[in-house]
Structure formats: C-alpha cells, structure tokens
C-alpha cells in the first residue's frame, strides 16, 4: 500500500472486533446477572450483585476500546498456525476426560500422552502409547499407592496393584 | 531462657539423625512437587497427613515444613525453564525467568532463585525466631479496610507492571476478575454466574486456571507453531554461573524481597502470592535498567523468589504463635498439629517448647539442605530441556492433568482445564499477557470481600476506608501508583503513537 | 489421525468396568478438611478393627458438600458398600444452593461427632456477658458486627436463632462472613468487630491464653474446656451443634441398612475410634437409628425457618 495514496484505505483489524464482541457479550451477561441479584448488601451497602456489575461495565468499556482500536489500525499479521497439532492435543484431553472413569487413570492418561507426543512430531503410536501407559502406571503407583492420592482406578490398576 | 537459648536447644533436637532424615525427605519431596506443575505443597502435605498418623509428631511436622520450603525452591525451576509455574507463588518468576531462559541465561536465573531463596529463608527464619511476638502485634492492628488497601496497592503494582499495551493488560486483568466473580459469594452465600452448574458454585480453582493457562496453553501454542519454534526451545546454553554483574544486580533484590515477603507472610490474608507480586513491582521500580523488564531482567527473578521464601517463613509466625493459618499449606499444617493433639497458639511455646524450637531450628537446617540440593543440581534441571520435545510436553500434560484429577476428578474441572488452555493459547497468539488473569482471579474476590467487610463493620460509611492510618497510607500509595505512571507515559505519548503509525504504513 | 483411531480401538478393548472395594467412603470436600478427616479416620478404624477388609476414600469437593451428595445419590443407589460423610453445614448448603438433591435422597445412618458453636469477644472488649451483648443487639442490631464462618453456615444460623430467641428481627443482624476461622480470629482479637462466633475449638486456645473471653456456647449442655454458660441457661432457646454424620446410599433394603448401621456401631464402640477421637479432639455425639432421624428432621426444620428469616432462602 505504501505510496499509492495519501490516505490509504485500511481494512479494520478483524481479531480486535471479534474480541470486542466477546468482551461485550461477557460484560453484558455480568451486568444482567448482577442486576438480577436480590441482595442489597445489608449494612455494607455493597451487595453480591455489585461486583459483577462493576466488572461487566469495565468489560463493556474495554470492548468499546477494542472497537475503536480495531477500526483505527489495520489487520495484524499473525504467524501461520498449525491447527492439526492443536486439535490432537485437545482431542487427547477430551479422550482422557471421557475414558478416565471407564478405563482408569493409566490408560486414559497414557493415551493423552501419546496424542501430545504425536502433536509434537512423534507419530508412532506403537511406541508412544506403551510409553505413556507405563509412565502413567508409575505415576499412579507413586501418587495413588504411596501418597494415597485418589486417582480413578480401572482394571489395569486393579490388576497390577490389587484392589 | 532467651531466644538464643531456645534456638540452641532447638538445634540439638534438629541434629538428631531421625529428625535430619525427616527434614531431608521433606525438602526432597517439596522440591519435587514444587517442580511438578499443578501439584503444590498444600496438596502434598494433605496427602501425607493420613500416612503420618503413626509417626513421630516432631518429625512429621518438620517434614511438612520442609515440603513447604522445598516447594518454594522447586517452584522456580519450571517457571524459569518451561514457563510453567510449579505453584502459584512462582507465577511471577516465570515472567522474567522464562525470558532469561529463552535468552540462554536459564542457569543464572536458577542460581539467583536458589541463592535468593536460601538468603531469604535464612534471614526470615531467624526473623521468625526473634521477631514473632512483635510481628504478631503489628498484624493484629490491621482490619479488613487495611487488607483492602493492601490489595488495591497490589493490583496497581501488578497491572502497571504487565504488558506493553495498557488496554491488553487491563483486558487480561478484568478477564481474571470476571472469573473470580463466578461461584458462591463468600459473604452472602448467593450463587453468582454459575448458570445452575453445581461444580461452578465453588468458583474457578486458581491451580486449574494457572495450570491450564501456563501448561496447556503453552503446549498448544508451541505445537501450533509447527517446526518454527523448534530451535528456540533448544537454544539455552552458556554458563550456569552467575557473573559478577548478576551478583551485583541480585543481592539487593534478595534483601528487598525478604523485607517485603516476611511481613506479608506474617499478616493474615497475605501469603506468598502477594509477596512475590509486590516484590516484582518494587524491583521493576528500583531497577537500574527498567527497560529490561519483560525481556529477562535478573532482578525480576531474584526479588520474587526471595519474597516467596520469606513469606513462607513469615506464614509460620501467625501459625505458630496464634494458631492462625494464612495460606492453604499453613491451614493443612494446622490440621497436622491437631492430628497429633497439639493446638498451635501462644500456649504452644509454653507447653511444647522443644517441639516449637526444634521445628524452627530444623527450618534453618532444611534451608542449608535445600541450597545443597538445588545449586549443584542446577545443571540437572537445565538438562530437562534437552529431553525431546514430544516426550517433554507429553509428560507436562500428563502431570498437569494429574494435579486436577487428584484433587477433583470431575468432568467439569477437566473441561475447565481444557477451555482455559485453549483460551491461554489464543491470548498468547494475540499477545495478551497471561499473568494478570491469574492475579485477578486470586486477588479479586479477596479485595471484594475485604471491602464489603470493612463497609459492613462501618455500616456503609465509605470514609472508614481511609480512617485507619495504615489503610490511608496504603491507599495513597496505590493512588499515586495509578496516576503517576500514565502521566509520565502521556508526556511521551505523541512520539510513540506517531512511530506506531509510521511502522504500520 | 490414524494413530488416534488406533488408540481409541485399543482403549475400547481395554475398557472394563472398575469394581468396587468393600466400602467406598465419599468425602464431599477437598483433602485436608473436616469431612475428609472424618472419612479417613473411619477408613483407618474400619480396617484396623477388621470390620471391613478394604476401605477407599474418594474426594468429591464442591458447594458445601452438595456436589458430592448429588453424585452419591445418583451413582450409588442401592449399593450398600458406599457411604458418604456429611454434616450440619450440608443442611444449610442444600437450602442456600437450592440443591436438587437433599438428605432425604440418601439413607442417614448416624451422627458421629459434634462441636458447640462458641460466642466470644476479645479480652479487652467492654462486653462482659452474653446478656450485655443481647441488650446491645436489641438497642441497635447494626452496631453489633458478628465475625464468623461462611454465610448460611452453622455460625450464621446460630446468630439468626439467637436474634430470633431474643426478639430481634433476624434480617437486621450485621453478620460479617470470613472464609476461615483464622481470619475471623484476627478481626476479633484486633477488635475490628464486636463479637466472634465460631466452633468452640477455634476459640479455646485463645481463651486459655487469656486473649479472649467466651460469652456462651450453643449446645444444650456446657462444653468441656470452658465454663461459659449455654444460651439455654441464659434464657435464649437455642440449641445448635455442628455435627458430622455418615449416610448410606438411597434405595437400600431394611436388612442392608441394619448391616451398615451395625458396622458403624462396631466402629464407634471400638478402642481405636476412641483413640482417634482423643487425638483429633473430637467430641463423641454418637446418635443412630430413629433418634438420629428425629434429630435430623428437627435440625432441617429449624434451619429452613431461620435461613428464610435471615433472608438467604426465598
């Protein structure tokens, strides 16, 4: 764009506008919920709804600031994001969440381990899955058996450590 | 007998082989859990309570104290090397420490943290022994309004210190404050912003948020850069020794951190978090090269690390002399005392002097052990980063979820870990600072409650906030902190803005 | 994403239901708290005395125990091997949180331990007796600030009951909630508030050290360790005890309930339980069977009324 026009036509910073919408939505929710609070604060005069209202108002003000800034400045160049690895890690976390109660701690966490390793370029599950599960069993042994942290047990833990 | 006599007697107790063994186990475990993200000293002590039922009371309590001290040492290691605070008091350390590690100065950062922790631990433990009665009297004068003023000061110090963009810093802070509002209002029992989800009634766990933002968010961000980030992570080399300049820039922050951390730890409702935040703020102000802050200033590691160790020692003052726990770990240690039929309080110094002074003397011994454990092993910690990235991050995520699962294995808690992790990634991507979110979550509800308590006591009279000398002074300082920096910035504003505009076109 | 599919397949093959231990005790609180302590003490004694071969403790923290209670009521139904620890705080939390699950949805077995609520002032406070305090309350309710535990908890309820018994409008009490006894203690000792109200155990060390004066205790009988009068003695009809209990799953047969009750009975009467009470400084207020059911119903009734009076429950 340089040198083409005295007043270059800028496109707005889309990210800032999206963030502004999100801040305004959250802020609005806080204000509505705060106003719904029946508590008037008793002797203090500051009730349980006042902090949400205060936070909500400031969030709305920040949303306005984002809009102003987003319209003034052009789009900000971001580095290329590889969303595949991100999806793998999030998928691993979801998998652990779902499997935790069904298979117990070690298998669920071992699979999270393998998913994460694969997101960082280690793409051989034949190695990463067993490594993850063995590490998770060791963690289970130390923290559940030795330090008595209550980690969800499945058949694997019960087979290895007894019930 | 005077303090010296009691301390000598305590050292005799502390040097018994079995007691030494307990202390060694404590400090080793403490360093380990401090290093591991998401597992803090509070959780570890809680887990050990049932295990120590049958053991020697003095030995067990010394082990707990060792875990507490060790956690403060160990917490700095992951903060510096991996940008993943091991426990909440080390969040601030990550700010400068990780920048130093990225610049290949991880070694000096670890050294200044370890030596600073030692100096602070030593001085603060001695202060605990000599000043306990006086500090308690001082702390007793403070009421809710004084704590509110103190927290306002901390807010200002912290938010003025973070980020290049005020708007982004404030946005982060208020996202944290918003998260802090979620859950049952402690003063009225009203549910706020919980949308009928019972797990949200207790609000957002600080550990969950911190682990999600720092560990999960960081892992996602690094993964999303593909191979581009590969070299940056491995680029840490160079000397692990502190240079002459490092020493000369570190010793004042160590002493200042100790001076800030100890009284704050000794005051109820304080704690190592606030101490490290305040120390960071003060170092940024005192620094000879303030422009280095945010890019790996050694003062920003030395001060907060000294402050959080001093605060840990300070916490023991109200715990031992009044039976007042001021942090989660102290509260669990109180339960540990009670498990053995001991009630901490003024009477404890009379009824069980051997135990109390043995405990205090053991802290001095534990501190020496920790220095030995942490200084020569620094190279081992630095070597952590040569572990292949895929195993390292896979392991980090496993331990990050372990902390959450161990305390509360509910799907809601794990979902929060995931959602905040994604949020942490997006915030990193768009250059919003992470730490103010965590700060807002910790301090927001505390400040709100102290304000409302102060107003309830005064029956709605707002002038009560400046009616005590302590609160008046603290609020004045906070006000100056709020007004002066923007004024200074404003005078240079035109220049900066034109430069930005030029860069964009 | 081939390996992910592989992993899922592997996981599916591995999946088998986890089987239960002899007893699983749910502690509806984080590790380290009072309910967790009770659950772990039960675990130790039940195993030591050979009443149960294997006991697991599981923490389900959240919202005054109501998260754990809700999970327990839905997942443990009909399973006689599952127990949950709870207490008076839960009664209030169920009401203030409008919890869909209440104690009627589980099978309460027995009250195990209890503690009186104490009313105390700093040693240099001008208030000398509970009567003086109540006079101040009658004259100007707002001028008496009460420092105690969380809103809607046992301390708050006790203040409400006392106000009512003294003929003061409970909505007018100036109750200042603190998150922990320690924080409240500092405010009381520093004379920041008029009076403190908390578990007697919180105050006793200070009373013994001469820095605090206990004005009254909330139980029907006087409490060991203090010569403070009961509220009843002083003419206010208040009898509150902060108790802890154990409950079994809903949907049990009479035989199953009797068997669980017998196990708990054996535990409470054992030497190691007595020893645990001693070391933990817990008072034995064991009550089981129909007596406990009656007492529990009365407590729930009184709590509901006072929480409505205070205005915490609509």
Which residues of chain C sit in consecutive blocks of at least 5 with pLDDT less than 50? 1-21
Silhouette of chain C: globular
Look at the structure and name the CATH superfamily of the largest domain in chain C. Answer: Bordetella uptake gene, domain 1
Q: What class would the helix/strand composition of chain B place it in?
A: mainly alpha
As an assembly, this protein is: heterotrimer
Radius of gyration of chain B: 22 Å
The residue fraction in helices of chain B comes out at: over 70%
Mean pLDDT across all amino acids of chain C: 80
- What global shape of chain B is seen? globular
Largest interface chains and counts: A-B, 78 and 66 residues
Helix proportion of residues of chain C, in percent? Answer: 40-55%
**Domain unit count of chain C:** 2
Strand content range of chain B? under 5%
Q: Sketch the topology of chain C as an H/E string, one letter per element.
A: HEHEHEHEHEHEHEHEEHHEH
Strand count, sense and barrel status of the largest sheet of chain B are: 2 strands, antiparallel
Organism (chain C): Loktanella fryxellensis
Pfam families (chain C): TctC (PF03401)
Signal peptide (chain C): 1-20
Protein name (chain C): Putative tricarboxylic transport membrane protein
């Amino acid at each position: 764009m340089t040198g083409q026009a005295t007043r270059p036509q800028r496109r707005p910073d889309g990210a800032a506008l999206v963030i502004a919408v999100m801040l305004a939505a959250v802020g609005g929710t806080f204000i509505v919920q705060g106003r719904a609070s029946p508590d008037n604060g008793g002797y203090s005069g500051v009730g349980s709804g006042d902090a949400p209202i205060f936070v909500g108002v400031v969030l709305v003000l920040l949303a306005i600031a984002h809009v102003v800034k987003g319209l003034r400045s052009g789009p900000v160049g971001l580095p290329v994001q590889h969303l595949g690895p991100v999806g793998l890690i999030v998928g691993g976390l979801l998998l652990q969440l779902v499997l935790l109660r069904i298979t117990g701690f070690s298998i669920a966490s071992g699979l999270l381990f393998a998913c994460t390793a694969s997101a960082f370029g280690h793409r051989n599950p034949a190695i990463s899955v067993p490594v993850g599960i063995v590490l998770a069993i060791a963690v289970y042994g130390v923290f559940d058996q030795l330090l008595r942290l209550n980690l969800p047990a499945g058949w694997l833990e019960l087979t290895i450590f007894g019930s | 007998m005077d303090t010296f006599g009691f301390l000598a007697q305590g050292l005799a107790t502390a040097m018994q082989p079995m007691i030494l063994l307990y202390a060694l186990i404590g400090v080793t475990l403490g360093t380990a859990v401090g290093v591991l993200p998401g597992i803090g000293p509070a959780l570890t002590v809680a887990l050990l309570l049932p295990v120590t039922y049958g053991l020697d009371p003095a030995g067990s309590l010394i082990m707990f104290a060792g875990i507490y001290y060790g956690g403060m040492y160990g917490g700095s290691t992951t903060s510096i090397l991996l940008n993943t605070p091991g426990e909440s008091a080390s969040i601030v350390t990550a700010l400068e420490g990780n920048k130093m590690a990225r610049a290949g100065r991880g070694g000096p950062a670890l050294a200044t943290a370890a030596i600073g922790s030692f100096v602070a631990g030593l001085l603060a433990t001695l202060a605990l022994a000599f000043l306990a009665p006086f500090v308690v009297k001082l702390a007793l004068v403070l009421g809710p309004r004084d704590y509110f003023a103190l927290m306002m000061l901390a807010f200002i110090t912290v938010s003025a210190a973070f980020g290049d963009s005020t708007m982004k810093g404030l946005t982060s802070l208020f996202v944290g404050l918003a998260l802090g509002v979620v859950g049952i209002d402690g003063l009225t029992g009203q549910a706020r912003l919980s949308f009928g989800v019972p797990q949200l009634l207790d609000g957002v766990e600080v550990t969950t948020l911190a682990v999600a933002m720092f560990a999960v968010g960081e892992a996602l961000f690094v993964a999303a850069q593909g191979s581009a980030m590969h070299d940056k992570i491995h680029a840490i080399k160079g000397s692990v020794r502190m240079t002459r300049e490092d020493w000369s820039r570190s010793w004042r922050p160590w002493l200042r951190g100790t001076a800030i951390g100890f009284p704050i730890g000794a005051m109820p409702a304080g704690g190592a978090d606030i101490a490290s935040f305040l120390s960071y703020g003060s170092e940024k102000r005192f620094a000879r090269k303030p422009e280095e802050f945010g890019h790996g200033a050694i003062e920003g590691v030395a001060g907060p690390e000294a402050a959080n160790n001093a605060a840990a020692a300070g916490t023991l003052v109200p715990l031992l002399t009044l039976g007042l726990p001021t942090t989660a770990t102290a509260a669990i240690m109180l339960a540990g005392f009670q498990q053995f039929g001991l009630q901490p309080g003024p009477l404890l110094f009379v009824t069980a002097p051997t135990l109390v002074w043995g405990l205090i003397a053991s802290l001095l011994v534990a501190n020496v052990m920790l220095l030995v454990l942490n200084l020569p092993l620094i190279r081992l910690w630095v070597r952590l980063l040569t572990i292949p990235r895929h195993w390292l991050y896979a392991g980090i995520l496993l331990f990050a979820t372990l902390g959450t699962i161990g305390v509360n294995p509910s799907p809601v808690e794990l979902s929060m870990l995931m959602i905040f992790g994604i949020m942490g990634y997006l915030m990193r991507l768009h250059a919003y600072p992470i730490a103010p979110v965590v700060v807002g979550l910790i301090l927001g509800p505390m400040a709100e409650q102290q304000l409302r308590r102060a107003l309830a006591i005064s029956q709605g009279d707002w002038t009560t906030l400046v009616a005590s000398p302590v609160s008046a002074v603290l609020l004045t300082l906070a006000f100056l902190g709020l007004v002066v920096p923007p004024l200074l910035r404003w005078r240079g504003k035109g220049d900066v803005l034109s430069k930005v505009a030029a860069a964009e076109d | 994403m081939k390996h992910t599919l592989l992993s899922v397949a592997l996981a599916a093959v591995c999946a088998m239901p986890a089987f239960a231990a002899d007893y699983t005790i749910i502690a509806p609180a984080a590790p380290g708290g009072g309910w967790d302590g009770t659950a772990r003490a039960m675990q130790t004694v039940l195993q030591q005395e050979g009443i149960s071969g294997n006991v697991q403790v599981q923490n389900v923290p959240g919202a005054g125990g109501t998260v754990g209670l809700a999970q327990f009521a839905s997942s443990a139904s009909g399973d006689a091997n599952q127990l949950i620890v709870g207490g008076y705080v839960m009664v209030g939390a169920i009401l203030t949180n409008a919890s869909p699950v209440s104690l009627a949805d589980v099978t309460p077995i027995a009250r195990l331990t209890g503690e009186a609520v104490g009313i105390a002032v700093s040693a240099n406070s001008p208030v000398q007796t509970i009567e003086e305090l109540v006079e101040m309350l009658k004259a100007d309710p707002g001028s008496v600030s009460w420092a105690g535990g969380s809103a809607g908890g046992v301390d708050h309820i006790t203040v409400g009951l006392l106000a009512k018994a003294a003929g003061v409008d409970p909505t007018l009490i100036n109750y200042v909630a603190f998150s922990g006894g320690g924080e409240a203690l500092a405010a009381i000792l520093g004379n920041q508030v008029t009076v403190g109200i908390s578990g007697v155990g919180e105050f006793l060390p200070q009373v013994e050290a001469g820095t605090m004066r206990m004005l009254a205790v909330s139980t029907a009988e006087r409490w060991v360790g203090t010569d403070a009068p009961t509220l009843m003695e002083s003419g206010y009809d208040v009898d509150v005890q902060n108790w802890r209990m154990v409950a079994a799953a809903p949907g049990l047969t009479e035989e199953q309930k009797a068997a669980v009750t017998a196990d708990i009975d054996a535990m409470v009467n054992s030497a190691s339980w007595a020893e645990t009470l001693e070391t933990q400084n817990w008072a034995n207020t064991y009550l089981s069977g129909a007596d406990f059911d009656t007492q529990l119903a009365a407590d729930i009734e009184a709590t509901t009324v006072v929480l409505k009076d205070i205005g915490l429950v609509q």
